[in-house]
Specification:
Layout lengths: L1 H19 L2 H32 L2 H8 L5 H19 L2 H23 L2 E3 L9 E2 H4 L3 H31 L10
Antiparallel strand pairs: 1-2
Helix pairs in contact: 1-2, 1-5, 2-4, 3-5, 4-5
Length: about 180
């Protein structure tokens, strides 16, 4: 699983670099992204059986709640999209397809484990579930208020930072930088 995570994130990073870089660096990033995609595909297929063998509820949860199959569908669409966009040379779109694959895989894991957050090897009563991990109503209401304020501040920060960083290409940097 660790190797799979490393390969997925390396592919994602190489695809991002391929979409933003120029020259020989972009060429190396494109080659790396294409090669790493094959490793990503191989590891997805190779990890299917061990995942079922170790935690068969990951698969049976999808049979019990078929609407959850949308998450693996997102992952497969992202993986296929990466391949198609790599071949077309649409590296920005390939990056977003890679992000869709990552989000789809994370959502698939969460949907497959639900209601468990951290399953227990000793059995169900010892697992951390969404029910025994939830805070009380008051704490959730207060958290929602603070989260709302925090997300507005974070969005404002990213807008300012984005304009500062990417707006510099149109203005010249001051001398000495």
């Amino acid at each position: 699983i660790g190797l799979f995570g490393l390969v997925v994130l390396a592919t994602h990073g190489a695809t991002f670099l391929a979409s933003r870089a120029t020259g020989p660096l972009a060429g190396r990033a494109r080659l790396a992204a294409r090669r790493l995609w094959w490793a990503e595909l191989l590891l997805v297929v190779a990890l299917a059986y061990p995942t079922y063998h170790v935690r068969h509820t990951m698969v049976t949860n999808f049979g019990d709640h078929p609407w959850r199959l949308v998450f693996p569908a997102f992952a497969v669409a992202g993986l296929a999209g990466q391949f198609a966009f790599h071949r077309a040379g649409a590296w920005g779109r390939a990056f977003f397809a890679s992000a869709l694959f990552i989000a789809g895989m994370l959502a698939t894991a969460a949907a497959g484990l639900f209601p468990n957050i951290v399953p227990s090897l000793a059995g169900h009563p010892y697992a951390l579930t969404v029910h025994n991990a939830a805070s009380n109503h008051h704490a959730l209401a207060v958290g929602l208020r603070w989260w709302s304020l925090g997300i507005v501040l974070a969005i404002g920060y990213f807008i300012v930072a984005y304009r500062f960083i990417f707006g510099q290409s149109e203005r010249s940097w001051p001398a000495g930088r």
